[in-house]
Amino acid sequence: QGTMTMKMTGDAKQEKVGENNYKLAYNMSTDMSAMGAGTVDMEMYYADGYMYYNIPAAEAKYKIAMDMQEALEEANSSALDGIEEEMVKESSMADEGDGKVVTMTLDGTKMTDMVTNMTGNLTASLGEGGEISIGDIPYTVHIDADGNITSIEMDMTFDMTIQGSAMNMSMNLVMDVTSIGGVTVELPADLADYPELTEDQLQ
């Protein structure tokens, strides 16, 4: 069992286009150079109802239809991401300059159930005997004097069994709100040329 380091960076833009109707676009690049030789870096984009993938090392580009509207509605239903109270094991709020900082711990068991429900039969995609569990999640939200979220940080740990092999993964996610309005997300000009993969092809 070894340790692998992966870094993901990107920009996201969310635009309200109607009542409880949001348009999302983002770009994300995955840097696996710390894993050494034979690694595969990847680019991901989301726009107009599709998730786009570009894996340069494999000369592979493809897109998958993905409706994120319901997730966006839930994410905007409250100042704290629509987190259900039953998911919070403990929480506190403190002053931070003119704003506030909220810290909480999310129940990993309930988060595992939520992720499984959102993604359908997640364990089936992990192969025979596949399992996944999420540990408790430290979650921090910084809010400015006007009530706007300025940053979110969370630490996630996963225990997975994929085709009989046990794997542990940890992720440190930091999301900074760099601007409210006027955000630009750079998308490749050739996204329209990405071939679409269907559910049948993914199985």
Number of helices: 3
CA(first)-CA(last) distance: 29 Å
Q: What's the story with the biggest beta sheet?
A: 6 strands, antiparallel
How confident is the prediction overall: mean pLDDT? 78
The radius of gyration is: 19 Å
Q: What fraction strand? A: over 45%
Give the structural class: mainly beta
What order do the helices and strands follow?
Answer: EEEEEHEEHEEEEH
Which consecutive residue ranges, at least 5 long each, have pLDDT under 50?
none
Number of strands: 11
Give the topology, please:
Layout: E1 7-18, E2 21-31, E3 42-47, E4 50-55, E5 60-65, H1 69-75, E6 88-96, E7 99-106, H2 108-119, E8 131-134, E9 137-143, E10 149-162, E11 165-176, H3 199-202
Antiparallel strand pairs: 1-2, 2-3, 3-4, 4-5, 6-7, 7-9, 8-10, 9-10, 10-11
Name the features:
mainly beta; 6-stranded antiparallel sheet
